[in-house]
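Researcher: Let's do a round of design. I'm pasting the structure tokens now; please hold your answer until I've finished.
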């Protein structure tokens, strides 16, 4: 029996260090919900999950971009619906003005409403969405996926630079006389044709953006699942591991205490 070196206590202390580290590691996994607490837990998994997380962040940002582009297109279409109703009413007024049984005084009354409707279209042409003109010749670009793919929405010109619409809204256009009403009616018909084309463009943009939104939703779901499979801790398995290490830690602590008491027995060999 020797007292210079307590090998039993040293061995127990080493075991206690290992079980304490394992217990702390298991506790960290359970508290964080992540299987990978430190890079050395799974170096390859860390690299893969970081790439997945980066892609997910980009995809979520692209989803916001697509949502804004959808709102932009929906706002455009909402205004053009009102322009369509306005043009329909203006064409009706022009037809009423062409009635030979109406006097110029009657036509003047129709023209008052006609003038107000022209102003309404001109007002809509100046509308903006978050400071960006809704109706101009400038194209709108939006990034629609996590790889930076851009989608271009062609500008819808509704203002003075659009000859078709400007023919309707210019100050000289009126229905105060039958000849003026005939000319105005021709301009309105051309504007209705142009408006149908513009709304068809917006409809195509909306369809493309809806598909992009669906794609991004699927991408986010798929990569979230893939990242989860790599990083997320299996609570049932880790709880079992935690219980195991906790019991070992307690028993090792008890054995270390016993090992530290062993040298005390040498006192029995010494004379009183």
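Researcher: That's everything. Go ahead.
Model: Designed sequence:
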């Amino acid at each position: 029996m020797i007292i210079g070196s307590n090998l039993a206590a040293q061995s127990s202390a080493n075991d206690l260090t290992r079980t304490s580290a394992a217990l702390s590691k298991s506790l960290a996994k359970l508290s964080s919900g992540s299987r990978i607490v430190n890079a050395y837990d799974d170096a390859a998994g860390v690299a893969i999950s970081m790439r997945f997380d980066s892609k997910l962040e980009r995809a979520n940002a692209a989803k916001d971009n697509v949502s804004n582009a959808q709102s932009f297109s929906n706002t455009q279409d909402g205004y053009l619906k009102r322009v369509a109703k306005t043009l329909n009413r203006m064409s009706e007024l022009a037809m009423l003005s062409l009635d030979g049984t109406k006097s110029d005084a009657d036509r003047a009354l129709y023209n008052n409403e006609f003038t107000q409707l022209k102003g309404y279209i001109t007002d809509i042409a100046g509308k903006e969405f978050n400071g960006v003109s809704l109706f101009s010749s400038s194209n709108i670009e939006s990034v629609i996926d996590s790889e930076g793919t851009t989608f271009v929405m062609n500008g819808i010109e509704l203002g003075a630079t659009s000859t078709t619409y400007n023919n309707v809204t210019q100050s000289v256009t009126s229905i105060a006389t039958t000849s003026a009403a005939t000319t105005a009616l021709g301009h309105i018909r051309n504007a209705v044709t142009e408006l149908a084309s513009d709304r068809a463009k917006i409809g195509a943009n909306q369809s493309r953006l809806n598909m992009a939104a669906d794609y991004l939703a699927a991408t986010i779901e798929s990569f979230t699942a893939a990242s989860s499979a790599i990083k997320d801790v299996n609570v049932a398995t880790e709880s079992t591991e935690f219980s195991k290490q906790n019991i070992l830690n307690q028993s090792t602590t008890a054995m270390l205490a016993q090992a530290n008491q062993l040298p005390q027995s040498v006192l029995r060999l010494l004379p009183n």
